[in-house]
Predict the structure.
Amino acid sequence: MRAAVIREFRGDLSLERVDDPVCEPDGVVLRTLACGICRSDWHGWVGEHARVKLGAIPGHEYCGEVVAAGPLAKWQRGDVVIAPFILACGQCPECQSGQSTTCRAQRVPGFGEAGAYAEYVSVPHAHNLVRLPESLTPALAAGLGCRVTTAWQALTGRAALQAGEWLAVHGTGGIGLSCLLLGRALGARVIVVDVVPEKLSHALALGAEAAIDAREGDVGPRIVELTKGGAHVSVEALGIPATVDSSLACLRPLGRHVQVGLPTGKLARMDVNMNAVYMKQLALYGTRGMPAWRYPSLLSLIEAGRVDVSPIVARHVALSQASGELRAFDGPTSPGVAVITDFAG
């Protein structure tokens, strides 16, 4: 099959012919219909992720058609499915308690497994897969990837965001944009923070109540003033010290900070204002992915028309263009995300 392979960190992906994937007993092999290009892929491409080695095939946000199914899998050839990026075993204590994002035997395509920047991808633990609703295109389903699902888990599974509460979103990439759209659907009042004027204008057009340019400084105090006391929930979607500081500073007493951005490399450890946590009695949540069993709660919202997630996907690209999209994450990006839909080009 044709695949994009990391042969050099920060180098162009190598378009190669590699062995077709093997179908595992509890898994399936998918013909990849679409695969999102995510900032998490960028962390692997630059060499910051411990599980991504040279020779890896990236890609963890995918939609595909079943072309082979193992004897323990429930799926049939021709089924079109989407998947959470964390493929949980279903058997360990964490899975049995419903907390499958912390599965002891989890597997993640693109991170220690061959990913979906390829014509085909092997998906073990296929009980995690979800049938693609007729109302969603494969490209949009791939755009949901880890962005919309992670945002849904952050807002509802972790922070328990309520209608009427103020939600601050620091960073308006795929995750941040998802938080804006889902927060609005939940009835929250949303403030976004970024450094790209085009992205701030885009967020306002999508219903953000206010947009703050972080280049002007004093993000936390400005949000406190704007909300007359601070945000109830604040989502950090970049994984860098400046936005973590702003997220904690913008919260009102008893506020909830949700760490969605992935801190890696030298940023894996950072100074945090624990005095603010103590004095304001803040709650700090980490979140990563979404359990597969929570897909219906999200998909029903989309299918009922209560939220339009189509603005998240900005570009359909060919596999040969993936390197350029990854390189763009080195700096501020334009609104929306890119999805690979052409695996021959």
Observations:
- The mean pLDDT is 95.
- The CA atoms of residues 40 and 262 lie 8 Å apart.
